[in-house]
Amino acid sequence: MKPDKIILGIDPGTNIMGYGIIHNKNNKIELITMGVIKLGKYSNHALKLKKIFERVLALIKEYKPDELAIEAPFFGKNVQSMLKLGRAQGVAMAAALYQDVPIFEYSPKKIKQSITGNGNASKEQVAAMLMSLIKITEAPEFLDATDALAAAVCHYFQKNIGDDGDKYTGWKSFVNKNPGRVKK
User: Is 104 helix (H, G, I), strand (E, B) or coil?
Assistant: First the structure.
């Protein structure tokens, strides 16, 4: 990893989507910003997806990240929730790909393991560890922000991307690595 890099972390969601941006400066992590995009006021799912695309695009244009780290959807019991979450993730990825920002995807378990040493850690434990690690003085209102920040920090820790992190440099790269996920 180059010594000076900006990483945008995303915790996808259709009601609240978290983001966290860090600066890797001389192998030290500095927090640039973190927050959430509140989407609950939009009843139309397609409109939520449009807002996610626009806000992620705006974050990319403002902070100019070198890479995007995003939490992969996890397999839950509710298929509809997983489908909506996957769409939110896809739209965030599309915004990054549109701006030629490479994408790295990590499972929730990998992110938690990377931050706390425990793949089953709670959101609160992840937030507490990040507050200590990055010297955040005030806990955010929504843990979605620290979850997104955790994705960025996890990526920072991954000097060599293993089986759990997939890098996409553009649509062609994504399609080649995911032939079953894209209709041709």
Answer: strand
Q: What is the CA radius of gyration of the chain?
A: 15
The predicted structure's pLDDT at residue 127: 93
Query: Across 26-170, where does the E strand assignment appear?
Result: 28-38, 67-71, 103-106, 166-168
Show which residues are catalytic: 11, 71, 144
| Fold of domain 4-178 | Nucleotidyltransferase; domain 5 (3.30.420)
Q: What is the pLDDT of residues 31-69, one digit of tens each?
A: 999 999 999 999 899 999 999 999 999 999 999 999 999
Neighbours of 137 (CB within 10 A): 5
Helices 79-98, 45-63: axis angle to 10 degrees equals 40
Instruction: Tell me if 153 sits within 8 A of 161, measured CB to CB.
Output: no
Stated pTM of the model: 0.84
The closest alpha carbon to 151, from 98, 97, 111, belongs to: 111
Q: Is 73 exposed, middle or buried (0-12, 13-18, 19+ CB in 10 A)?
A: buried
CB atoms within 10 A of CB 134: 17
